Amino acid sequence: MSAPDPQWANAWSSTVSRTEPRLTHTHATVVSRNVRVSKLDAELLDGELTQMLREPVSNALSLVRPGLAETYRLEIDTVIQAVLFWLSVGSHRRATYAQGLQNLQYARTGGFARRVHLFGILSIGGPYAWARMVGSMSLAGWADAPHTSIRALVWRLVQRIERITKVAALLNFAAFLVLGQYPSIVERILGLRLVHARPQILHSVSFEFLNRQLVWHAFTEFVMFAMPLVNPMKARAWIVRNVRSVLRLPISVDQSVKELPEDVCAVCFVEARKDDTHAVNPYVTGCGHIYCYVCISMRMMAEADECSCLRCGAKVDKIRQYLQL
């Protein structure tokens, strides 16, 4: 076999040298997208864990004094977040519980322990201190202070810092969506990067659970919307009547109701089980049986076209006042 033409060999080497960096960059981009999704999932899971632990604490505090949990809700969330952070990231695990489930951990670099402790103080204690400070200033009426006073100047400075922080958080999140490195500003400042704990086990994004949750959420929303529109008594009577019609079953009537005296209201008897409850303001149905006006009218309103007589099972669609001769 003859040796390849030097021109072809040079062209092949040049092509490989130009395409290999692009392939490597493409592969790195795909991996970073997976890491990006894992970081967002971990942040959501950590928030859900805090909410799940808040409920039993709030229930316990409500037994001490009603409204105590709502008054100190910010302190409760801060303590729960601090405990979870200390038991996970602060105890040499290098990842929160949710980040561990997503196969993530913080990359160990120089001064890692000091930066992790500082990250916990700034990300948990910082928002708490700021929220309490702003709340106290608002309750003290700093926003309504004279325009040239020190309080008004400090209040405007606080509001400006809040706006700058929100804009910075938005820009950082946009950079995170593009580069997938630092989900929060504090992590960016401290240089804490989340990487795969086991690079050989990459996180695969599965939408099966998400689809199932979306379907279940849509179903429950539909049920909650439709339930007030459904009349349970009417639906039950319609189902019983149609099943009986399809299966050709005879109309079943309670024998004790059937044997009641004519002047006793069957509805009152079924509800109170007393055979001396004579019909008050008696009305008679089309089948000739007597009921209290309130009882039979309420039953007709509840069951509508599916209302049936308790004595004989006949359909009740109209009533008239009972007049004794």
Topology:
Blueprint: H1 6-64, H2 68-71, H3 73-87, H4 97-101, E1 104-106, H5 112-139, H6 150-179, H7 185-190, E2 194-196, H8 208-226, H9 232-247, H10 255-258, H11 266-272, E3 282-285, E4 290-292, H12 293-303, E5 319-321
Antiparallel strand pairs: 1-2, 3-4, 3-5
Helix pairs in contact: 1-3, 3-5
Summarize the structure in short.
The chain is 63% helix and 5% strand.
Key traits:
325 residues; mainly alpha; 3-stranded antiparallel β-sheet; two-stranded antiparallel sheet; 12 helices; 5 strands
Q: What would you say this structure looks like, in words?
A:
The chain has 325 residues and is mainly alpha-helical. It has helices at 6-64, 68-71, 73-87, 97-101, 112-139, 150-179, 185-190, 208-226, 232-247, 255-258, 266-272, 293-303, and strands at residues 104-106, 194-196, 282-285, 290-292, 319-321. The strands form two sheets. Strands 4-3-5 form a three-stranded antiparallel β-sheet. Strands 1-2 form a two-stranded antiparallel sheet. α1 (6-64) crosses α3. It is elongated, with a radius of gyration of 36 Å.
